[in-house]
């Protein structure tokens, strides 16, 4: 029997498994699009610092993005508002299909991990709060690499800590930049279309794709069982 193409499925966390919409729930801001824009702005800042060789905690980038968005909307970034938003960011709910997708991956015999731009402690807490921590064999945050995805060092450091190599792991993400980075690091990749709906033509083609997490995980399960 042929060896399965990979035995680890590595999920991105924020925006892929966990819904960032809760970040704006206690703010005078509305809508999923606003929450996704906040997440994108947060990650963009982290990427820029990684490119210039700087590193700071992910929460600082999120704080700056929230402050900017509030001020652009005509509101002050009061201490109370900021506390509420940052607290919400630490306990993001799972998307409705997250648990089923994790079950599909587990039933296929895949080991499950996350490599996330959140620090490890925050990622652990977020998974506990969402009720999904028990599915994970490993949780690796950006603090171990002191850099942010899609820098290759983040994937390499994460896989080293997980105890596997790129060719034995598939990265699942709802962000084209994450798929692109993981592919460059030598991993299999799977793109979830629930956020972007269509990939840029310049993004490396994923090995698997689907409209939601469950569809993607069924594709991964079929690949390892074939």
From TrEMBL:
Root EC class: hydrolase
Enzyme Commission code: 3.8.1.2
Listed GO MF terms: (S)-2-haloacid dehalogenase activity
Domain of life (superkingdom): Bacteria
Pfam families: Hydrolase
Assigned keywords, A-Z: Hydrolase
InterPro entries associated with the record: 2-HAD (IPR006328), HAD-like_sf (IPR036412), HAD-SF_hydro_IA (IPR006439), HAD_sf (IPR023214), PGP-like_dom2 (IPR023198), S-2-haloacid_dehalogenase (IPR051540)
PANTHER family referenced in this protein's UniProt entry, alphabetically: HALOACID DEHALOGENASE, TYPE II (AFU_ORTHOLOGUE AFUA_2G07750)-RELATED, HYDROLASE, HALOACID DELAHOGENASE-RELATED
Family affiliation: Belongs to the HAD-like hydrolase superfamily. S-2-haloalkanoic acid dehalogenase family.
Protein name per its UniProtKB record: 2-haloacid dehalogenase
